[in-house]
Design goal:
QueA-like; 341 residues; Thrombin, subunit H; alpha/beta
C-alpha cells in the first residue's frame, strides 16, 4: 500500500486556526456505515447517536508546554527545545532546532534552568537532563502544530475539559468538542464514560516518510488502561453495548488491550500501527477529526471504515473528506468532527 494513496489536496482556508466557541457547536459529519447515509449535524447532536448501555472512551492525557524557545550565545540567536517525552526525573527526549551546537556533553542554561545533553540519537533527537527547578509549564509555550499559524488561542483551548494527567505534546483533538454540560447529558442518558490514558507523542504525529506504508515504524507512547475500566468495558461488551472511541489515541489504547475476546488491564508502551488490513477487535464506533494527508491517523480511520463494511476504506475516507470540503468543514486540530457508526 502506497503512501500517496492517502494524499489529498486541502486549501489553507479549510485549516482551523482556532476552536469553535462554544466547543460543542462544531460541525459533525455522521457516516452511517450500514446504509451509506451521511448527515450534517452540530457536535452537541452526538447524543442522538449514543444509546443507553454504550461506553464512550476518552483519553484523559493533558498537554504540556512542550515548546521552549530561548536565546543562545552572544548573538542572541533564538533556539528551540521541543520536549518529546520524559524518560527519567527531569530527563527528556527532545528535538533541538537548530541542533548542531548541542553535542553530547554540552551544557547551557534556559531561563535559569541548567541543562546538559546526555546523548544524541541517530535520528537527531537528544536526551537532555534539566535541573530540579525545571517546570515545562513555566518555561514553555503551547505546542500548537505548525499549520496553526494565526491562532489567538491559549493552551487551555488546546486541552480537553477532562484532561487530567500531564504528558502529551499534542492534544487528543477529537475530545476538544466536548463540554462538561454535554458529558453530563451523555452520562444522564445511561452511557458509561470511561477514561483511558495515552500520552500523545511522536507515535501519533510523526509524518510517514516511507513510500510503502508497511515499512513505517511507529514510535512508542505510554498508555494506561485500568482494571476498573477493563471490568466495566467487558461487562458492556458482553451485554451488547457498543465501545465508542473518541479519537485515534483512545482507539490505540483499546486495541492494544483487547486479547482473547476481552479487555485486559495494561500499563506500558504501545507502537500499534493501524492501517487498512488491520484486524479490529475492540471498537464499534468512532468519533474523530479530519486528519492530515498521508498521516497514520487518516490510515487508521480508513481501516476502521473497512471494519464497518466499506470495501475500500482508503477510497471512502477521501470521498468523505471531499464531501466535508464541499460543506465547508474545518480540518485538523481545531477543526470539526466526524462520527462513524
Amino acid at each position: 500500500m502506497k503512501l500517496t494513496d492517502f494524499d489529498y489536496d486541502l486549501p489553507s482556508k479549510f485549516i482551523a486556526q482556532n476552536p469553535t466557541n462554544p466547543r460543542d457547536s462544531a460541525k459533525l459529519l455522521v457516516f452511517h456505515s450500514k446504509t451509506g447515509e451521511i448527515e450534517h449535524r452540530i457536535f452537541r447532536d452526538v447524543t442522538s447517536y449514543l444509546e443507553k448501555g454504550d461506553a464512550l472512551i476518552l483519553n484523559k492525557s493533558k498537554v504540556i508546554k512542550a515548546r521552549i524557545k530561548f536565546k543562545f550565545g552572544g548573538k542572541g540567536k533564538i533556539l528551540e527545545i521541543f520536549l518529546l517525552r520524559e524518560v527519567g526525573k527531569n530527563k527528556y527526549l527532545c528535538l533541538v532546532k537548530p541542533g548542531k551546537k548541542f553535542k553530547k556533553g554540552s551544557k547551557f542554561k534556559v531561563g535559569g534552568v541548567e541543562c546538559e545533553v546526555l546523548d544524541r540519537n541517530e535520528d537527531g533527537s537528544r536526551i537532555i537532563q534539566f535541573s530540579s527547578n525545571f517546570d515545562p509549564d513555566e518555561l514553555g509555550e503551547a505546542p500548537f502544530p505548525p499549520y496553526i499559524k494565526n491562532s489567538t488561542s491559549s493552551l487551555a483551548d488546546y486541552q480537553t475539559v477532562y484532561a487530567k494527567e500531564k504528558g502529551s505534546i499534542a492534544s487528543p483533538t477529537a475530545g476538544l468538542h466536548f463540554t462538561k454540560d454535554l458529558l453530563g447529558k451523555i452520562s444522564d442518558e445511561g452511557v458509561d464514560i470511561e477514561k483511558v490514558l495515552l500520552h500523545v507523542g511522536l507515535g501519533t504525529f510523526l509524518p510517514v516518510r516511507t513510500e510503502k506504508i508497511e515499512d513505517h515504524k511507529m514510535h512508542y507512547e505510554f498508555f494506561e488502561f485500568t482494571a476498573e475500566s477493563a471490568l466495566k468495558l467487558n461487562e458492556i461488551k458482553n451485554n451488547g453495548g457498543r465501545i465508542i472511541a473518541v479519537g485515534t489515541t483512545s482507539v490505540r489504547v483499546l486495541e492494544s488491550c483487547f486479547k482473547d475476546g476481552k479487555f485486559h488491564p495494561t500499563s506500558g508502551e504501545t507502537n500499534i500501527f493501524i492501517y487498512p488490513g488491520y484486524k479490529w477487535q475492540a471498537v464499534d464506533a468512532l468519533i474523530t477529526n479530519f486528519h492530515l494527508p498521508k498521516s497514520t491517523l487518516i490510515m487508521l480511520v480508513a481501516s476502521f471504515l473497512e471494519l464497518k463494511g466499506c470495501k475500500n476504506g482508503t477510497k471512502k475516507i477521501l470521498e468523505l473528506y471531499e464531501i466535508a470540503k464541499k460543506n465547508n468543514y474545518r480540518f485538523y486540530s481545531f477543526g470539526d468532527a466526524m462520527m462513524i457508526v
